Amino acid sequence: MISLREIDPADLALFDEWYDAFRAGAVAGRSAALVIGREALGYSMRNPSPVKARIAVGAFENDRVLGAMLFEYRLTDNLDTVEVEIDVPPEHRRRGIGTALWQWAATRTAQLGRTIVQTELGVPAEPWPGAIFAERLGFVTEHVEEQLVVPLPFDEVRLEELRESAGRLDGYRLTSWAGVCPPEHLQAYADLHTAMDQDVPTGGMTREVVPWTLEKLEANEVRLNRNYLALVTMAHTVAGQPAGYTLMYLPRADAEHAQQDDTLVLREHRGHNLGTHLKLANLDQLAHHRTTQRFLHTWTALTNAPMRKVNTHFGFHPVEQHRELELRLPSLRPAARGVILDPDDRILLVRFEFPDGPLWATPGGGLEPGETVVEGLRRELIEEVGLEGFPDPPHLWHQEVVAEGHATGYDGVLNDYFLIRTTAFDPAGTLSPDELRAENVHALRWWTRTELEADPGRFAPRNLPALLRHLLESGPPNTPTQLTL
Ligand SMILES: CC(C)(COP(=O)(O)OP(=O)(O)OC[C@H]1O[C@@H](n2cnc3c(N)ncnc32)[C@H](O)[C@@H]1OP(=O)(O)O)[C@@H](O)C(=O)NCCC(=O)NCCS
């Protein structure tokens, strides 16, 4: 049976095992995949950024990690959005592990009160498993870039031709540096970053652009510098006004790959070959700082014809598509629920009263901010029925119901159900009868399977009698069954 757990990044052996699965899933079938390095990701997880939360989730079977997810969200802007990356190594695919990780993401997204999920896909060929998987979940491709690669060291003949065809650079000065931005250029560099964020095409991806402040840029530079050597060339007018920049990263722990990131020429300075001059100057820096790297990667929007032309001149060739996808979720109220069975297979249910009659449901309730689903389950069961001290329970069902009237202020509910085997007990939680009544709980009662199947009343989940029969006959599923009613 697969169980999901958050990985403590300080547990180095476990983080390593998780990273191995993450990487193996991400690179499979891709000749030029560029995946964040173990050291860089480990560092950013062990030293959390004040602006971004990162959670590593592992899918475990018998204490082995079979699948990995990186779940991230910004803390000070883009507060409706989360980013997910799910990677399952090929030998463990098509067993529902990707879906189980996705369900974890859906629950945590709802718990954070966010509704936009974003992801990125490297697609070297069609059909591609990740694209099929994402489309099935409802993701829509909002932006496509081409990933291109050029072998290193750079072809000197080509560089010379480019230098000649670029001509002289009149009216501008170029400044290059390696590492963190020199203090005298910080303000211009921050403004250029903001202009880049505003200018870079992202198709239909939802993105709130927040201007770069000096503090934010400096903090970001220091963090990046731990794991990447940045090579930057910036252009100024002779009067000292910033006109553009280009940026390359040499990941410090990656002996093979370098990446060409942003290149921006401000609108009013376009048409002077400044982009080519910037890149040429930065390639001189690369020649100086490169050690073992054999490939330089870059990404360009399919719609960006001028940049694609420049890339071709520089000798880049396309290796795969880089897609950005987005999914808008309804706002669902997340809850954890217990399928509590005694040794006679009786199930404990609570009775809610609604204007249109009673409804019998599994005990449990809404998650509080910051608690895991199982922590929420434990708290709710102590409060509602007085059950505690059970081992981590198997996850049975993941239910998303989009319907009016299920939870005030939400588009519907999201329930994760767990199996708890216990001796029979008289349910009595820490909540008083009045407090239970305030939560609309009017009775608690054990049901035999026969009673459940004979009762014409309403249950939640709606087909609880059939689900229970299946559970008792076949045992818990290997990964949670998805319910919609
Ligand atoms: C995409 C990925 C995470 C799926 O992992 P998985 O554990 O195989 O996923 P599941 O078993 O839960 O598959 C769920 C469904 O997705 C679809 N699917 C997944 N892989 C597929 C494939 N190769 N061909 C056709 N359909 C596929 C199927 O509908 C499948 O259901 P089924 O097996 O009952 O038919 C995995 O292929 C992977 O790691 N790919 C590389 C990274 C990536 O692209 N991640 C996705 C973006 S976040």
Automatic annotation (TrEMBL):
GO molecular function, one term: hydrolase activity
Gene3D superfamilies in UniProt: 3.40.630.30, Nucleoside Triphosphate Pyrophosphohydrolase (3.90.79.10)
Keyword Oxidoreductase: no
Keywords: Acyltransferase, Hydrolase, Magnesium, Transferase
Pfam families in the record: Acetyltransf_1, NUDIX
Domain annotation Nudix hydrolase: ranges: 331-469
InterPro entries: Acyl_CoA_acyltransferase, GNAT_dom, Nudix_hydrolase, NUDIX_hydrolase-like_dom_sf, NUDIX_hydrolase_CS, NUDIX_hydrolase_dom
Essential cofactor(s): Mg(2+)
SUPFAM superfamilies in alphabetical order: Acyl-CoA N-acyltransferases (Nat) (SSF55729), Nudix (SSF55811)
Taxonomy, superkingdom: Bacteria
Domain N-acetyltransferase: 2-164
Stated family: Belongs to the Nudix hydrolase family.
Name of the protein described by the UniProt record: ADP-ribose pyrophosphatase YjhB (NUDIX family)/L-amino acid N-acyltransferase YncA
The organism's taxonomic lineage, starting at the top: Bacteria, Bacillati, Actinomycetota, Actinomycetes, Propionibacteriales
